[in-house]
Amino acid sequence: MIVIEIADNANCLPTERVFHELTPPQPVARVRYERRFGQPRWCVVTGWTSRGTPCPAVLQKVDDSGEGVAYLVHGGDAGLRLQPSERPSPWRIDDPRQWGEPLLILPAAEDIITEPAHG
Predict the structure, then answer these.
(1) Could you give the C-alpha distances from 31 to 21, 44, 64, 66, in angstroms and in order?
(2) Three-state SS for 10?
(3) Model confidence over 48-102: pLDDT tens digits?
(4) In whole angstroms, what is the distance from residue 73 CA to residue 61 CA?
């Protein structure tokens, strides 16, 4: 069982969710995410801590009671931090090109890159 408890913080909204894990966690580097409806884009992702620092983001296949099998991306005690992957910059809470999410639930493995991009 995965229990996600994100308190109110500067990065994202608070949330509490419970998932039934189907696979162990593995590091995740990029996700295809639709922040604006109809405009999915590849984003770099990291976990975020309440200290305002990055930490690993991980992926786990879960049983999401409402949706069936899904892919959960989660991070630190302050959620996740994302930015477009075209021109990544150092992680900062005050960077307007970056944003926070408590967690992501993605429907397909094709929307996830688990190894850091090279090149």
Answers:
(1) 19, 7, 19, 22
(2) coil
(3) 999 999 999 999 999 876 668 899 999 999 999 999 999 899 999 999 999 999 9
(4) 9
